């Protein structure tokens, strides 16, 4: 998007309704007025359309990857024929690597090992954030899903300053910070979600906050949060922490 091209939430909502062919008579008049009055209107419509296509492409890509994994799971692809000595060397190197990793693992912090075993990146939202009609949020979500967490934060942090209690925004800012290993910032974001009366992200916030506490060695806080979660992974992790401590 051009630096000078600013799409307001109302404009974003109007363009989305036009793309969905769901304009009310009042919105249709507003859309026509914008076409006449805003010289950048066609560019704004193109930007929002491109954003939606990017989000849809990411969804299709994720689905294709799942189908590919399922299709080839358990299959035995044909391997090239190599001399036996090559396989012998490869096997020796593999044994050395396994031994080295085992040696390294013996010195790895048990909390870190558990964190790595249970941590998975949040996949992000597939569709636009309901109720906000924010171009900047959706553009940031495209970056987030592509692993561009710093770019996502550059778009989301200003939104968070405007709406510091928005739980969806807080959660994904927390997730981006966590991916960037900004653990303190992520912890504060997630704690703020839990301080609210209710949030659809409460369970996920507890889970990731527990993992942060685990990584930082704050086991009592981690166990307290995990014991309050019903998900099987939480109970399994809680048992493993109790074994280690």
TrEMBL record:
InterPro entries in UniProt: TPR-like_helical_dom_sf
Keywords: Membrane, Transmembrane, Transmembrane helix
Pfam families in the cross-refs: TPR_16
Transmembrane segments: 85-103
Keyword Membrane: yes
Key word Membrane present: yes
Annotated protein name in UniProt: Tetratricopeptide repeat protein
Species of origin: Algoriphagus formosus
Native organism taxonomy: Bacteria, Pseudomonadati, Bacteroidota, Cytophagia, Cytophagales
């Amino acid at each position: 998007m051009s630096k000078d091209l600013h799409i307001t939430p109302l404009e974003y909502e109007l363009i989305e309704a036009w793309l969905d062919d769901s304009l009310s008579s009042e919105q249709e008049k507003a859309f026509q007025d914008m076409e006449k009055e805003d010289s950048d209107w066609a560019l704004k419509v193109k930007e929002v359309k491109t954003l939606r296509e990017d989000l849809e492409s990411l969804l299709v890509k994720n689905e294709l990857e799942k189908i590919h994994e399922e299709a080839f799971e358990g299959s035995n692809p044909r391997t090239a024929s190599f001399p036996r000595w090559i396989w012998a060397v490869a096997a020796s190197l593999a044994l050395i690597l396994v031994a080295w990793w085992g040696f390294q693992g013996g010195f790895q912090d048990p909390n870190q090992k558990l964190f790595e075993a249970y941590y998975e990146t949040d996949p992000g939202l597939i569709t636009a954030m309901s109720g906000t009609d924010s171009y900047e949020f959706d553009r940031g979500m495209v970056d987030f899903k592509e692993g561009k967490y710093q770019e996502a934060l550059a778009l989301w942090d200003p939104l968070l300053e405007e709406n510091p209690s928005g739980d969806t925004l807080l959660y994904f800012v927390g997730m981006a910070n966590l991916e960037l290993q900004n653990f303190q910032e992520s912890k504060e974001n997630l704690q703020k979600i839990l301080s609210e009366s209710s949030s659809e992200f409460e369970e996920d916030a507890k889970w990731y906050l527990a993992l942060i506490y685990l990584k930082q060695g704050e086991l009592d806080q981690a166990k307290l949060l995990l014991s309050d979660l019903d998900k099987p992974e939480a109970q399994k992790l809680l048992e493993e922490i109790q074994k280690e401590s």
